[in-house]
Amino acid sequence: MNNDSQHTRQAFLKQGSITRTSVQADSLNKVAVEEWNAVAQTSRSKSALDTQVGGGHYNSMEIQPIEFIMGNKLGFCEGNIIKYICRHASKGGEADIDKVIHYCQLLKELTYGPK
After folding, report:
1. How far is CA 84 from the centre of its chain?
2. Does residue 111 have a pLDDT over 90?
3. What distance in Å separates the CA atoms of residue 83 and residue 94, rounded to the nearest whole number?
4. What is the pTM for the complete model shown?
5. Side-chain-facing half-sphere of 72: CA atoms under 13 Å
6. CA-to-CA distance for 68 and 51, rounded, in angstroms?
7. Residue 93 CB burial class (10 angstroms; 0-12, 13-18, ≥19)
8. Sign of the dihedral through C-alpha 50, 53, 56, 61
9. Of the residues 3, 13, 39, 109, which has the fewest C-beta atoms closer than 10 A?
10. Which residues contact 20 (CB under 8 A, 6 or more apart)?
11. How far apart are alpha carbons 28 and 6 in whole angstroms?
12. Do residues 106 and 76 lie in contact, with contact meaning Cβ atoms separated by under 8 Å?
């Protein structure tokens, strides 16, 4: 059995479709190749971007804030400004706008010095 087949079969087992106790190892060889490939594709394509803890306000966005932040190598303050401005309408409302203003003030002071 090659490494791809082994990985695919392990993924199939982990997913719970077949358990080692309920099926003889011999019968695993009878599972259709298409079934193994489908499970393998599912287990490989899951991304952390597909999961959001604490709501769904980022998942519906065309480009998630984290993708923009990481892709442009933004710092902590800039990243929070992007995050809060993107979600204010669907989550935090006026409080998120206040956070944007606060992070802008922090960025300005920490980058360019106090007035």
Report:
1. 18
2. yes
3. 14
4. 0.58
5. 13
6. 17
7. exposed
8. negative
9. 3
10. 13
11. 11
12. no
Q: Which two tokens stand for residue 87?
A: 């979600």
Q: Which amino acid is residue 26, in one-letter code?
A: D
Cα–Cα distances in angstroms (integers) from residue 64 to residues 53, 59, 82, 91, 107, in the given order: 14, 7, 10, 14, 22
The mean pLDDT of 73-84, rounded to a whole number, is 97
pLDDT greater than 60 at residue 50: yes
Give the span between the Cα atoms of 3 and 25, in whole angstroms: 17
Assess whether pLDDT exceeds 80 at residue 28: no
Q: Is the pLDDT of residue 97 over 90?
A: yes
